[in-house]
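Q: What does the assembled structure look like for these inputs?
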Amino acid sequence: GQQLNQSPQSMFIQEGEDVSMNCTSSSIFNTWLWYKQDPGEGPVLLIALYKAGELTSNGRLTAQFGITRKDSFLNISASIPSDVGIYFCAGRVNDMRFGAGTRLTVKP
Amino acid sequence: EAGVVQSPRYKIIEKKQPVAFWCNPISGHNTLYWYLQNLGQGPELLIRYENEEAVDDSQLPKDRFSAERLKGVDSTLKIQPAELGDSAVYLCASSLGWAGELFFGEGSRLTVL
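A:
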């Protein structure tokens, strides 16, 4: 089963708004990854984090590796319609575990 | 550079029939994964290979599922016999070493009737 608690489960936002989602666990992870999945496609890697406290950006996306190593968040600034999809966090110690996903809907 | 390639993209079978999925990882990636993704859920690991060795298959239902990666490159995942509950997307991923970033294929969507 899933050991990562990802929230929120879904978000409905207006184009141009900022978005924030997070992932927490009772376990410590060495790596956090964030993926986006479009319908009928495989997950696509957005950002990878390898050190506690690390803050990394990829365009309008920013993600942070929590200091406790038990959490991570992803922010999307100035959302656009193509941001629609399901975002997954993934954490690794021995193997990669995935959260249940945050489904994002962006209204034009 | 080609990404992870999976086939078939879609497969519809009747229960109790066998089915096989094929995966070609990114060139040079020695670590290969098979994940199961149920509707509305995140991927769940079935098996991880380091080269041709299955190093983590604890989540693979071995009574009906089998996998192989004979030459340490391509891999196949087989289900025999398939059950209704096996309907899901089967994702293959690869990485450059165990600690590397995972790159996924487009998945094989299985429907068991």
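The first strand of chain B starts at residue 5 and ends at 7.
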